[in-house]
Amino acid sequence: MNNMPEVKVGIVAVSRDCFPESLSVTRRENLVKAYKAKYDEKEIYECPICIVESEIHMMQALEDIKKAGCNALCVYLGNFGPEIAETMLAKYFDGPKMFVAAAEETSENGGLVQGRGDAYCGMLNASYNLKLRGVKAYIPEYPVGTAEECADMIHEFLPVAKAVYALENLKIISFGPRPTNFLACNAPIKQLYNLGVEIEENSELDLFEAFNKHENDERIPSVVKSMEEELGSGNKKPEILSKLAQYELTLLDWVEEHKGSRKFVALAGKCWPAFQTQFGFVPCYVNSRLTAMGIPVSCEVDIYGALSEFIGAVVSNDTVTLLDINNSVPKDIYEQDIKGKFPYTLKDTFMGFHCGNTAACKLSFCEMRNQMIMARSLPEEVTNGTLEGDIIPGDITFFRLQSTADAKLTAYVAQGEVLPVATRSFGAIGIFAIPEMGRFYRHWLIEKNFPHHGAVAFGHFGKELFEVFKYLGVEEIGFNQPAGMLYKTENPFAR
Question: Both 195 and 145 in a single domain?
Fold first, then answer.
């Protein structure tokens, strides 16, 4: 996948001047050794020039990790630590940061007399000073550990750091306003700027002009060949591939020409009502191909859907998709294929669907077809270009980051799975099962006014996504609460 960030974490040890500096040096060396023994040493950098005890040391360390190409920071409390200098380091470092602290070990020189570091205590002061300075930092669930445990914490920080860094360097490019009757996908863009994300909004006419300029592009045959190889026997609309290839090249060229100062890009495209009649096809399959390349493309100009997809792609380092939380599972299908075979009630299940924007690699089978819903009111020949198939079974995480109508960030994360059950339907679709989905649907998704689109990561990434949303400052993060844990709006007397 292209369009994905790489992170290098600079590890800077700190020391309170009334504690032995050698304690922080030794503990830092042990931490780095433990990380390299278990993980890729290219992911970290050990700042060797000093142990930070003062503001002067802080500036020296900051310069060193910048020269080393670090775009993420780990402040390591080898002992109690200097609360001012260590939090100034976090403030002046331009990128995601974390704090961890060394646990005591009686095997170290001096035991619990000369070798006691009190980093357990120092972490409290560090967190207080971070708040005073308005600095966001990732702090693990239990941030005190041995060298091996702290190495694991740093590794768990990587996907969070990648997502935060990527958002600070992201541009979302959109085409056209949201379609009529899709106000649910329309949200204030103010929060994008608060997150450090740039937004470039364009007209469909701009895109159409660029598309026409790519007619007879010499690269079209090679893209068509790539599509044919990917579709195989599922290539049911070969006559449309050259136009789809022309459109794919249009989008890829637009990304390169409009990326500007940003390192990463996501797209929010329009696909109806005029798109089909003017372009002569639907863009679903092309959207799926770009998403598989690491450039997520949302449907219906869903800007926060594109944002969510991009976060999911970075965190999972895999292809994602965007689906409607679409329809209930018929009771007869549940009784026949799910009940007694899987630990879910009917209300735990639903169908996730979209017209055909899910990448071929995430479908059990796929066929290039026309967009059935659009073909009900338009000539079939202008609705070709969608990719249909049942979504591959396995673990998933359903999630979304959204701005409310009054420009406040909100989010949800729910883990579940796609069941290995035939959908008997059309589009890119799967039967999803999320524990306590019925309650989650009513008391979070509906109650908090979330739109119908949700991003899907293939695997369980709830822990990482929850931490990303926390780091970004999302105050309310919903999740599928277990039975017995009531939502605020849930009636405690309901049966």
Answer: no
